[in-house]
Amino acid sequence: MTGSAYNPMRPAKRPGGKPRDKPKYRVLVHKAFYGHFLELVDRVGAQQAKQFWDHVAQTPGQTDPIAQTTILKGTAGKAIGDGWSRTIHYEVSSSARIDYQFNDAYKVSPEGDPHPVVGILTINYSSH
């Protein structure tokens, strides 16, 4: 995706195919963790992978009713820029955690249209 307006982020398609409801947020994953994202179903299973994606695509700022989410404190939780949330730590499984931030009105350029975007910043498959 050379020349993408979202560089260094890549679109993160929903595991298992199209969602039932149109996503409110565009889900992107940092290019350094794109390979990890592609492994998500194999690592945690299709159900948990879909649950994560559906959560961040619809309600990234709310707690998930099933998985544990934590807003990180200190510099680990610092927003990547203006309009971005603090980092949210999502426990997909006991051995898989994903950190993300969201922006309700992300603009590619100052003249651009605002779009709701979720940026997956890190994916970790090691145990605590």
Structure description:
28% of the residues are buried. This protein has 128 residues and is α+β, with helices and mostly antiparallel strands. The mean pLDDT is 91. A six-stranded mixed sheet has the order 1-2-6-5-4-3. It starts with 8 loop residues before the first strand and ends with a strand. The protein has a domain at 25-103. The chain has three helices and six strands; from the N terminus they run ββαααββββ. The radius of gyration is 14 Å and the shape is globular. Helix content is 18%, strand content 30%.
Give the topology.
Blueprint: E1 9-11, E2 26-30, H1 34-38, H2 40-44, H3 46-58, E3 68-71, E4 88-93, E5 96-106, E6 115-124
Parallel strand pairs: 2-6
Antiparallel strand pairs: 1-2, 3-4, 4-5, 5-6
Name the structural class.
alpha+beta
**Termini distance?**
33 Å
Mean pLDDT: 91
Question: Which descriptor suits the 3D outline?
Answer: globular
Specify Rg, calculated over alpha carbons: 14 Å
- Helix coverage percent: 10-25%
Q: Flag low-confidence runs.
A: none
Strand order of the largest sheet: 1-2-6-5-4-3
* DSSP strand content: 25-35%
- State the total count of DSSP E strands: 6
What is the subunit organization of this protein? single chain
- H and E order: EEHHHEEEE
Largest sheet: 6 strands, mixed
Q: Figure out the total of helices.
A: 3
